[in-house]
Amino acid sequence: MSLHPSLQTYADAWTHAVEAISELVSPLVESEWNRATPCPAWSVRDVVSHVIGMDCEMLGDPRPIHTLPRDLYHVQTESQRYMEMQVDVRRHHTAPEMTSELEYTIIRRSRQLRNENRDPSTKIRGPLGSEQTLEVASRVRAFDVWVHEQDLRTALNKPGNLDSPGAYVARDLLLQGLPKVVAEKAGAPASSAVVFDVGGPVEFLRTVRVDAEGKATVDNAPSLGPLATIAMEWDVYFRLACGRVSYAAVRDQVKVEGDQDLGDAILRDFAVTP
């Protein structure tokens, strides 16, 4: 295989998640495509449209020429408008059209990954005219598809794959956002530590340490005297971190020891995804 070893993890995670999505939606009747998902304002059809559209962009396909309706009130920012374009252009597609395009896109992307021989540091086109390295783009793609697989599983009441390859990509990417959540958003004091104890299918213990200058880092060493310890299950953690649920909705599933006010401040603004 020509794929660079550092990209293989992301290729495997993407493949596992996107094939799971295909299996989930292939048998759906037309009405089920309209079910709401935890992804704000998006239906099952919208989520699958987004997956198709972003993978088409990874393939280098031109973006659709399309004018968004003015009544999409959930679309407020330039980034949201960018993402919504690939979704809205497919809003009236039938179930067979959706599944056919998804299957064709998976075939094309799988072939692209099999033949990929570029260096991970190669710059490629990203959203809104930005540039990303191939490695970053591959990581984000694997993360995005796994999270949307979980959106679909919730909407269709078919839980699963909480410990699949994509789950571990998601864990690592979400953990990168913890220092900002603790130090900047919640305002944890200098020279303090907050421990996150996550159980379930993906289990981990991480400590966010805020130094004397207020800069935060995350590591996997325990803290002897944390200001707060926050414990929850993996499915609660990633849904909070991805903005799929509010703290108020899952408060009874989260345990805060130590500084309750700090724990509440962290959890109220826990989302790290756009």
List the quaternary state of the chains. Answer: single chain
Tell me the helix content. 40-55%
Strand order of the largest sheet: 5-4-3-6-7
Estimate what percentage of residues fall within beta strands. 5-15%
The separation of the N and C termini measures 34 Å
Principal-axis shape equals globular
SSE run: HHHHEEHHHEEEEHHEH
Structural Rg: 20 Å
Domains (count): 2
Q: CATH superfamily of the largest domain, called what?
A: dinb family like domain
The CATH topology of the largest domain turns out to be Four Helix Bundle (Hemerythrin (Met), subunit A)
What is the tally of helical segments?
Answer: 10
Which residue ranges are poorly predicted, with pLDDT under 50 across at least 5 consecutive positions?
A: none
Largest sheet: 5 strands, mixed
* Name of the top-level CATH class of the largest domain: Mainly Alpha
**Strand tally, please?**
7
Mean pLDDT: 95
CATH architecture of the largest domain: Up-down Bundle
What structural category do the secondary elements indicate?
alpha+beta
Keywords: Isomerase, Pyruvate
Domain MDMPI C-terminal: 169-263
GO molecular function: isomerase activity; metal ion binding
Pfam families: MDMPI_C (PF07398), MDMPI_N (PF11716)
Polypeptide structure, described:
The protein is an alpha+beta fold and 274 residues long. The protein folds into 2 domains: 5-157, dinb family like domain (Four Helix Bundle (Hemerythrin (Met), subunit A), Up-down Bundle); 171-268, Nonspecific Lipid-transfer Protein, Chain A (2-Layer Sandwich). The chain is built from 10 helices and 7 strands. It has helices spanning 5-25, 44-58, 78-88, 95-114, 134-156, 165-175, 178-185, 234-241, 247-250, 260-268; strands spanning 123-125, 131-133, 192-199, 204-210, 216-219, 228-233, 255-258. Strand 3 (192-199) and strand 4 (204-210) form a beta hairpin. The chain is globular and about 55 Å long. The mean pLDDT is 95.
